[in-house]
Specification:
353 residues, alpha/beta, Rossmann fold, six-stranded parallel beta sheet, six-stranded mixed beta sheet, 12 helices, Lys1, oxidoreductase, AlaDH/PNT_N, NAD, Saccharopine dehydrogenase
């Protein structure tokens, strides 16, 4: 039984974030297994609060975890916490983006150290073979590639709004005639890569698929021959960049659009160090070069939110079995805590030096 575990699913502070890490159906299963689950009200969440209450969860006001969540509750979320610099005393399960030298990482880790809490980062919940157990990658890749295709076909309407897969597929299929674009997906064997390839296939294209083997010795000329590049690489070690500013100025390149699903913009591991800022739902496309020839960028870091039901349902199904194992503190959890503690130690060592 897991009756000592209290999960507190918080409100997401990003207005565009409609996903949830746990669906009402999976919450019902966890409650039946003895977990206590509190769900904060969240206007934009795709699943109504009433569905969680019907599933046996308790409710709490928006953003109330600071004051109301007991110290031993696990605060569950997806994206960033409000940036208010308060010390963090709980164990938080979410995507912290704090271990790869990203902007704001040191400040976030310091908040945990100050409050005595811990980050159990969803990106670092891994199995015995080091593979992530729960990820949104597939739908990120799917949506990213779909947006790229629609932009190339002049069919991308802004601002972007969440939809469901049948509606997105209908757009891709309706615009397929006469599109002779060549598309390259790098990281094609991963989750996002598979999603990207599936969307491109739905759109009637046949993507070139590169993964580790094909980039070991990067064929830059072949890369620049494609009209569209979708980057879905996940690397934790710095590698030589796939694109440089010199490539952007290459007048012979055919490459006209880059969709960076990875969005590791401020990280040391960024394989596309040719831009500094992600793009948004309001302005999803930015020109990196206006001529020589034109090169556009799509780099949206919350792509799966555009298909919130499909993305949440897939993610929750992967995560829920691991939440059940919090009580025994086995499986993915000790490793996630160790990763956090290692990051904190590394930060403290840097400060001492
Ligand atoms: N933009 C978004 O909204 C969004 C959402 C979810 C995930 N992501 C990001 O997408 C990225 C991919 O996630 P994933 O779940 O697909 O990861 P994954 O581990 O499933 O796949 C990554 C792939 O990259 C390949 N790879 C690693 N280094 C490579 C290299 N040097 N050359 C070629 N291929 C290489 C791996 O072999 C693997 O197949 C991550 O950085 C993740 O954070 C972005």
């Amino acid at each position: 039984m897991s009756d000592s575990i209290h999960l507190w699913m918080r409100h997401e502070s990003r207005e565009t974030e409609r996903r949830a890490p746990l669906t009402p159906a999976d919450a019902a299963h966890l409650v039946a297994e003895g977990l206590r689950i509190t769900v904060e009200a969240c206007d934009q969440r795709v699943f109504p609060l009433a569905d969680y209450i019907a599933a046996g969860c308790e409710s709490a006001p928006t953003d109330s975890w600071h004051e109301l969540a007991p110290d031993d509750a696990y605060v569950l979320g997806l994206k960033e916490l409000p940036d208010d610099r308060t010390p963090l005393r709980h164990r938080h399960i979410y995507f912290g983006h704090a271990y790869k030298g990203q902007g704001g990482a040191a400040a976030l880790l310091s908040r945990f150290t100050a409050g005595g809490g811990a980050l159990l980062d969803m990106e670092y919940l891994t199995d015995d073979r080091g593979r992530r157990v729960a990820a949104f990658g597939y739908w990120a890749g799917y949506v990213g590639a779909a947006l790229a295709v629609l932009h190339r076909r002049g069919q991308l309407t802004t601002p972007l709004r969440p939809m469901d897969r049948p509606a997105l597929d209908a757009l891709l299929e309706a615009t397929e005639a006469e599109d002779a674009s060549t598309a390259l997906v790098i990281g094609a064997l991963g989750r996002s890569g598979r999603g990207a390839c599936d969307a491109l296939t739905t759109a009637g294209l046949t993507p070139t698929r590169w993964d580790l083997a094909e980039t070991r010795e990067l064929d830059r000329a072949a890369l620049l021959e494609h009209h569209l590049l979708v980057n879905t690489v996940l690397t934790t070690d710095p590698v030589p960049p796939f694109l440089t500013k010199a490539d952007l100025d290459d007048t012979a390149r055919r490459l006209a659009l880059v969709c960076d699903v990875t969005c590791d913009v401020t990280s040391e591991c960024n394989v596309l160090p040719v831009y500094d800022e992600t793009t948004t739902w309001d302005e999803p496309v930015r020109a990196l070069r206006k001529d020589t020839p034109r090169l556009d960028l799509i780099a949206i870091d919350n792509l799966p939110s555009l298909l919130p039901v499909e993305a949440s349902t897939a993610f929750s199904a992967e995560l829920a079995p691991h939440l059940l194992r919090l009580a025994e503190w086995d499986g993915v959890w000790p490793g996630a805590l160790h990763t956090f503690e290692t990051a904190v130690q590394a930060q403290e060592t840097r400060y001492v030096r």
